[in-house]
Amino acid sequence: MLTLAFDTATGVATTALVRDGDVLGERVGRASAVLADADDLVRAAGLGPGDLDLLAVGVGPGSFTGVRIGLAAARGLALALDVPMAGVSTLEALAAGAPGAVPVVDARRGEIFGLVSGQARCLAPDDLQVDKDRTYIGDGAVRYRETIEERGGVVPPDGSELHVPHARFHARLAGAGGPAELVEPVYLRAPDAERALP
Fold first, then answer.
1. Hey, which of 60, 108, 126, 142 has its CA 20 to 30 A from 48?
2. What is the largest CA-CA distance in the chain?
3. Coil/strand/helix, residue 190
4. What is the pLDDT averaged over residues 148-165?
5. Sheet strands (E) in 20-66
6. pLDDT tens-digit map of 54-68
């Protein structure tokens, strides 16, 4: 199965082309370039869009705008190519890249997105349960490194690949997929623009 996967929920967008578990190519860039990156990966593999069997997209939680960019791009491609689509949690994809680590995404406004008892939650960094000597990954772990480390947690160096939700893990977690219109974003709070309205 040939899967094109991407995630635009964090400040770093990732795109991967995966065939039966083998990574044919992967890019790290910006959300605005995700479709160009996808096209480059498909062409570099000597394939065309019609060869794709599945689209996998990160559904967040993360940046409201970033999640919408990825979801809209994936839905458009899935509908145009008539292929199934799978939504994959950005937190679960991060965790797949570092088994045993705790994924933490920067939610901005002094908050983080994390997994609490296996459920995605939005919380203050001080409310994150930190276990001594456990590893914490993601842009939220980097931003709140001091809070995590002073409580005994371990955060890899800022430039570590462990902090990136690589799209190859989205492809691995995607399953068979289904209709594009059934894939929904994971929003854990209202968008900033909506919160600003009286």
1. 60
2. 53
3. coil
4. 97
5. 22-29, 54-58
6. 999 999 999 999 999
Distance CA 14, CA 33 (A): 10
Amino acid (1-letter code) at residue 48: G
Strand order in the sheet with 2-7: 22-29, 13-19, 2-7, 54-58, 85-88
- Average per-residue pLDDT for the chain: 95
* 119-123 sheet: strands from edge to edge: 119-123, 111-116, 102-108, 136-137
- Burial annotation 25-61 (CB, 10 A radius, 16+ → b, else e): bbbeeebeebbebbeebbeeeebeeeebebbbbbbbb
Q: Is the dihedral of CA 137, 139, 140, 146 positive or negative?
A: positive
To the nearest 10°, the Cα dihedral for 97, 33, 70, 86?
-60
pTM above 0.90, yes or no: yes
168 to each of 15, 104, 171, 197, how far by Cα in Å? 8, 19, 5, 38
- 30-61 residue pLDDT tens: 999 999 999 999 999 999 999 999 999 999 99
What backbone torsions phi and psi does residue 173 show, to the nearest 5 degrees?
-90, -5
Q: How far apart, in Å, are the Cα atoms of 57 and each of 2, 128, 146, 173?
A: 14, 26, 31, 10
Rounded to 10 degrees, the C-alpha dihedral 35/60/125/135 comes to -80
